[in-house]
Amino acid sequence: MTPERFIERIESYYGKYPGKPRDTRATVISYLRKRYKEDELESLLRAVTMTFSGEYKTVPDIAVFERARVAEIARPSKRGTYLPFNEKITDDERVGVAKKVKGVVDYLAEKKRAWRM
């Protein structure tokens, strides 16, 4: 799936990207080209639709794609494989994502401890 086709499917589900002349859309397409291989976009689309509600017809931004990607990496697919990392991603970016995930887990653990008291 091409990044343009991916965006068409996202827009059919969530609504159109805002901006003149579609600046946000162009930015997201550029991000998708740099970050994902075409064969990874189907997995990303599945992860986004599973983790980001279409209830309010708000289109997902790059941050949503990053969170969905982390969710997809953590969940094995039907074939037992994971959404692979694109080689263009640096080790520093991987460490950054891991720190964000750890921060979320720590936050949730603290909330659970506070709830028990």
Descriptive report:
- It contains five helices and no strands.
- The chain has 117 residues and is mainly alpha-helical.
- It has two domains: 3-86, no CATH class; 87-117.
- The termini are far apart.
The helix content is 55-70%
Number of helices: 5
Helix vs. strand class: mainly alpha
pLDDT under 50 segments (min length 5)?
A: none
Mean pLDDT: 81
Number of strands: 0
The SSE string, one letter per element, is HHHHH
Give the CA-based shape.
globular
Largest sheet: none
Number of domains: 2
Rg from C-alpha positions? 16 Å
Question: How far do the termini sit from each other?
Answer: 49 Å
Tags for this entry?
117 residues; mainly alpha; 2 domains; 5 helices; 64% helix
List the helices and strands and how they pair.
Elements: H1 3-14, H2 23-35, H3 41-51, H4 62-74, H5 91-116
Helix pairs in contact: 3-4
Summarize the structure.
The protein is mostly helical and 117 residues long. The chain has helices at residues 3-14, 23-35, 41-51, 62-74, 91-116.
